[in-house]
Amino acid sequence: MEQEADLPGNPPHRYRILFTAVKEKQVYLLVRVCSRSPMSNPMGPCGGDQPCALLWIKADETLGHREITSEIFASCSYNYNQIGKARVAGGKLVIVYETTSENVKTKLTYDNAHPERGIQKKQL
Predict the structure, then answer these.
(1) Proportion of the chain above pLDDT 90, given as a percent
(2) I need a surface site. Which of 13, 38, 84, 114 has the fewest CB within 10 A?
(3) Phi-psi bin for 2: left (phi > 0), alpha (psi -120 to 50), beta?
(4) C-alpha dihedral over 23, 4, 80, 104, to 10 degrees?
(5) What's CA 18's distance to the chain center, in Å?
(6) Contact (Cβ atoms closer than 8 angstroms) between residue 30 and residue 68
(7) Contacting residues for 31 by C-beta, under 8 A, at least 6 apart
(8) Residue 115, SS3?
(9) How far apart are CA 118 and CA 108, in angstroms?
(10) What are phi and psi of 65, to 5 degrees?
């Protein structure tokens, strides 16, 4: 899976399953993945970075055929600054982050009642 997804930072990656769903013979997972800084100098800028991303995984019942998309939402190294904490309530997730180099805010949402829609992304 690590070869199929655009994961932030360097291994080892730490995964946390946020949501799972089965709908019309498809398995859906929403996973938060964080890692170590891609910066080689731990004392340099972003040396203590812990990049994080959301992975949306859609697979058949055997988990053999799958589709994976990812969205980085927190990382000094990638110029993403998460604003506030991720809100998880009622089967829904909301994360707001800012791309500091472009000064653009983005909102990521996911609704486990409609997992086939994947991660929705909207500029604010």
Answers:
(1) 55
(2) 84
(3) alpha
(4) -70
(5) 10
(6) no
(7) 15, 16, 17, 18, 54, 55, 57
(8) helix
(9) 10
(10) -100, 120
Instruction: Kindly list the strands in the beta sheet with 52-60, ordered across the sheet, starting from the edge strand earlier in the chain.
Output: 10-23, 26-36, 52-60, 66-74
β-strand partners of 36: 10
Residue 59 per-residue DSSP state = E
Of 79, 81, 113, 107, residue with least CA distance to 94: 107
- Report the distance separating Cα 78 and Cα 61, nearest Å: 35
- Domain range annotation of the chain: 10-123
DSSP state of 27: E
Q: Does pLDDT of 114 surpass 90? A: yes
